[in-house]
Amino acid sequence: MADSVSFKNINKIAIPAIIAGIAEPLISLTDIAVIGNVGKNSVEALAAAGIVGSFLSAIIWIVAQTKTAISAIVSQHLGANRLHAVKTLIPQAIAFNFLFSLAIYGVTAFFARAIFSAYNAEGLILQYSEDYYQIRALGYPLTLVTFAIFGIFRGLQNTLWAMKCSLTGAAVNVALDYLLVYGIDGLIPPMHLKGAAYASLAAQATMLVMAFWFFFKKTPFHLKLSFNINPRMKGLLLMAANLFVRTAALNFAIYLANAYATDYGKNYIAAQSILMNIWLFFSFFIDGYANAGNAIGGKLLGAMDYRNLWELSKKISKYAVLIAIILMALCALFYNQIGLLFNKEATVLALFSSVFWMVLIMQPVNAIAFMFDGIFKGLGEAKYLRNVLLVATFLGFTPALLISDYFGLKLYGIWIAFFVWMLIRSSTLVVYFRRKYLHKEV
């Protein structure tokens, strides 16, 4: 098992996971960059894309936690040489994701106007949000089934297949964004915000088709459903339920931030949309090493190799912090140019530039939190992760945001609250891991 925590093996999983991970937010960033420069009503369209993007991320992150649960179970059984025990679980888990996604679509599409009104959207922003969401929501089944399959790949210690799917999907999205948003004279009429939504839908369909190809050609699993429920299904759903609650708390923080930014005015939510999507982009980038921690950690736990589990935590934390510092340096170098990629409004750019430095300085703290998130998921420690997020959100983020709002800090206050949030997450996970696993490594 020593090879599992070698630099080569960690990066064999982490680097494709980074590329696959950044392909997801790249789709949203492309939408925002294209929409934010569309011309007439670009600020309203940008605000709507940011609000809908946050809500979509919230829903997908919550219900896609079965991906993490599947990955943990597959990797633990791989480490214990018992993959045969989960062969009937896989199609059942995929079917669960599909049926659940249909239910989510039916409920949220019907209440779309009420949902985005709760984000303080009104007028043209509310109308754009509803129109954009009605199309993007059709992608729930595509995305959630794809994520379930990606979880299987990760559990098998392979993130390369997911990377290929995600890169292809991102390329499809970028190409169709320009074609459908701006149109082609005499061939394709400009569809503006709706065009971006259709481009995202096509990208999601592309990724699903490719994921199925790798699933059938490269894995030992199948899609034949057994009506005898696999005994591990209960554990998977329990783990997923704890992660649902955890991710709901996480997204409550993001919702609250966007609701306050929207209330401050359209320029504030436009700037917040850019900041939030860059933060998410960084998160997915750094999260590649968390994926390695998830996959390898589960395998080491299955083999009861605690010495290498401890080594894994040290190595991936070091690599992730280094990545975070590199990202900070690159963004500092092009600080004033980055905002121009997404919008040309002087007020929006001024708000963005005044706060962007806060997003940058918190990246090393984020890296530590994400690393231990990934390891804990691989170890099946979903209950503890749930409790940490509840504490961080309701005893850290929310009070910090309310106090900051009271003193009129606006966007500064939102990102102060996020910094407090991440400090609580990273410190509690490090302390708990040391207490539980350090003594076992000898």
From TrEMBL:
Family matches, as Pfam families: MatE (PF01554)
Superkingdom of source: Bacteria
Subcellular location: Cell membrane
Bilayer-crossing regions: 45-64, 94-115, 135-153, 165-184, 196-216, 236-257, 269-290, 316-335, 355-376, 388-407, 413-433
Topology relative to the membrane: Multi-pass membrane protein
Keyword Transmembrane helix in record: yes
Keywords on record: Antiport, Cell membrane, Ion transport, Membrane, Transmembrane, Transmembrane helix, Transport
PANTHER family: FMN_FAD EXPORTER YEEO-RELATED, MULTIDRUG RESISTANCE PROTEIN NORM-RELATED
Name of the protein described by the UniProt record: Multidrug-efflux transporter
